[in-house]
Amino acid sequence: MAYEYTLIDTPQALSSLLSKLYELERTRPALFIDLEGYDLCRHGRIALITIHASPLAMTYLVDVTTLGEASFTTEGENLPGKTLKSLLEDKEIPKVLFDCRNDSDALYNLYKVDMGGVIDLQLMELATRKRRQRAYVK
């Protein structure tokens, strides 16, 4: 099975992507997100944000290295004020991540993005463990 992906490395491509993402249904998780970077934390750099939009059967690779601050300030087509930053912060748009601690730390400290609507799969997995298996979870 081939997976489709698109590199987002221009403000125009990002604007078009945001228009698609803001149209997605919000009743169940549709966005699956991961960040890649160098020493991914408040002292590192974000290089790439991978966004899989399951209803579109498409994965988008947002090139933060190329776009820089524009990754978070570019507005969607005909969507004033709707940016990747506002999408990531929106508590009404469910987003699935796995162990988002470093991702969230980097986003907040490097770009002032305060993640909202996050479903952390690692926390869900830990919560389903039997009591003895959770001995080291605090």
From TrEMBL:
Superkingdom of the organism of origin: Eukaryota
An example GO BP is:
nucleobase-containing compound metabolic process
- UniProt-recorded name of the protein: 3'-5' exonuclease domain-containing protein
All copies of the 3'-5' exonuclease domain together span 5-132
Pfam families referenced in this protein's UniProt entry, alphabetically: DNA_pol_A_exo1
Q: Which PANTHER family match?
A: RIBONUCLEASE D
> Which GO molecular function annotation, any one, does this entry have?
3'-5' exonuclease activity
Cross-referenced Gene3D superfamilies, in alphabetical order?
A: Ribonuclease H-like superfamily/Ribonuclease H
Identify the InterPro entries for this entry. 3'-5'_exonuclease_dom, RNaseH-like_sf, RNaseH_sf
